[in-house]
Amino acid sequence: MAKRKSSKRADTTPKVGFVSLGCPKALVDSERILTELRRGGYEISPSYEAADVVVVNTCGFIDSAKAESLEAIGEALAENGRVIVTGCLGHDEAAIRAVHPDVLCVTGPHQYEAVVSAVHDHVPPPAAHDPYVDLLPPQGIRLTPRHYAYLKISEGCNHGCTFCIIPDLRGTLVSRPIGEVMAEAERLVAAGVQELLVISQDTSAYGADIRYRTGFWQGRPLKADFAGLCRALGELGVWVRLHYVYPYPHVDDVLPLMAGGRILPYLDIPLQHGSPRILKLMKRPAAAEDTLARIAAWRRLCPELALRSTFIVGFPGETERDFEILLEFLREAALDRVGCFTYSAVEGARANALPDAVPGEVKQERWERFMVAQQEISRARLANRIGSTLEILVDSVDGSTAIGRSYADAPDIDGVVHVDEVADLTPGRRATVVIEGADDYDLFARQVVRSPGSPRAASTRRAR
Questions:
Q1: How much is the average pLDDT of 180-186?
Q2: What is the largest CA-CA distance in the chain?
Q3: Among 184, 237, 182, 229, which residue's Cα sits nearest to residue 204?
Q4: Rounded Cα distance, 249 and 45, in Å
Q5: Is 307 helix (H, G, I), strand (E, B) or coil?
Q6: Pick from 58, 37, 76: which is nearest to 169 by CA?
Q7: Is pLDDT at 173 greater than 50 in this prediction?
Q8: In contact, 33 and 116? CB cutoff 8 Å
Q9: Count of CA atoms in the C-beta half-sphere (13 A) of 152
Q10: Strands (DSSP E) along 259-405, which ranges?
Q11: Hey, which of 48, 145, 237, 398 has its CA 20 to 30 A from 300?
């Protein structure tokens, strides 16, 4: 449930409970819905009991996510009884109602107006509300800590990956106007955000659907393409982190921005596999050998570049040789951060019709071998950081101990930097630290310089 302090106003003010599940893109959807509800005079309830209605924003990409969403809907029904469902699982209303027939309404992903309308239907908004009491911050309601925020630049995807149903759930690529994106980014920075995490289904395709139409920001024309957006975001003086970037050739254009400290030298690239045969079955938009060459070229342009990716093992038709090729790819790519999933059939995905399904026990065994291989890579790359100086962004402080992240660490999915005996640090501040130790995923450091008062790009200095 969204956590907010109780209002001192009359109990007649309608209250909405909210459960947000799924990926950061769904989290941004939740923030937008909550913002519209608060703009309409609703309060956000911290509990089921105090809510007049509960909205559950679901995930429906894989079976485990569907199960979690159905469980969350059931809990909300049991605890409150009045539930509106939205999000990716809402694409299949029949499946939801087969399990939970008593939900009030079901809408699909990013159908913000439909969700707000459903809340209005079942819990009418207040006839009037005091704008001085109900005033919204310019950046709207956010569900992340104050010092970082997700910036969604587009919806949908034009790829036809056989394991994925995102185009069915969220449609084809729809890029936001660049002036609108930059205006939101400015509002977030003005509100104290120190790190912008750029997200979409395919970030490097930004603007392709609108033919890179020129927009305006700060009174000047700005081309709506990936490099143009990165250059503009790099002017805001905060960390800019790029997620879900396909390794297209034009991604090369942003490496000088990373090398020059304008945006973080970090790329999240969903590669999925290393075997050319499996990538062809997946209908992925890049060949493994081209990707390895591009990674090598990127590192020549920006030696400090941190790369994260996700992979799938046990895809239909994956042989032991295909898996060995994947491991060879992994060792040659030497990625900094990696996530791995066993293949899970998604209802409606074309991969379900492929022959030679991999048995569950084989998928699990391959996942374990994959993780052992990546742990060795991660351990070696992190050990190479020992003795270096890094700037970190502090996420939490407990007494004299702080936990922060370097430029190489995205929140929730990557590792962290543990710092002992800190002084004058609070969440959202910067600190310069020397790395003194490492394990498979995290770094251990000591603070050496007081956090700068103003944000600047991350930097590293290798020990000599």
A1: 96
A2: 68
A3: 229
A4: 47
A5: strand
A6: 58
A7: yes
A8: yes
A9: 19
A10: 266-268, 306-313, 337-342, 389-398, 401-405
A11: 237
Q: Which residues fall within 8 angstroms of residue 386, CB to CB, at 6 or more apart?
A: 435, 436, 437, 438, 463
pLDDT, tens digit, 9 for 90 and up, residues 217-274: 999 999 999 999 999 999 999 999 999 999 989 999 999 999 999 999 999 999 999 9
* H or E element, residue 56: strand 53-58
Rg value, the chain, Cα: 23
Side-chain-facing half-sphere of 379: CA atoms under 13 Å? 8
Highest mean pLDDT among 150-159, 338-347, 363-372: 363-372
Query: For residue 328, what is the enclosing H or E element?
Result: helix 320-333
Query: Please, what sign has the CA dihedral across residues 428, 432, 433, 439?
Result: positive
* Residue 4 buriedness (CB in 10 A; 0-12 / 13-18 / 19+): middle
Q: Are 188 and 236 in contact (CB under 8 A)?
A: no
Q: Is the pLDDT of residue 132 over 70?
A: no
- 364: tokens are 């699990």
Q: Please, what is the end-to-end C-alpha distance for the chain in angstroms?
A: 49
Neighbours of 213 (CB within 10 A): 13
25: closest CA among 154, 113, 140?
Answer: 154
Instruction: Measure the CA–CA gap between 137 and 124, rounded to whole angstroms.
Output: 23
Q: Which residue has the higher pLDDT, 386 or 424?
A: 386
Can you read off the two tokens belonging to residue 142? 């956010």
E strands in 348-408:
389-398, 401-405
Percent above pLDDT 70 for the chain? 91
Torsion of CA 281, 286, 291, 294, to 10 degrees: 170
Continuous segment of H or E residues that includes residue 151: strand 148-152
Structure tokens at 246: 């396909």
DSSP assignment letter at 64: H
Q: Output the CA torsion sign for 314, 320, 321, 327.
A: positive
Task: Label the pairing between strands 195-199 and 148-152.
Answer: parallel
Predicted confidence band of residue 3 (pLDDT cuts 50, 70, 90):
very low
Contact present, 72 and 56 (Cβ < 8 Å) = yes
Q: What is the distance between the alpha carbons of residues 7 and 13, in angstroms, rounded to a whole number?
A: 9
Q: Which amino acid is at 156?
A: G
How large is the average pLDDT for residues 303-319?
97
Residues 300 and 276: beta-carbon distance below 8 Å: no
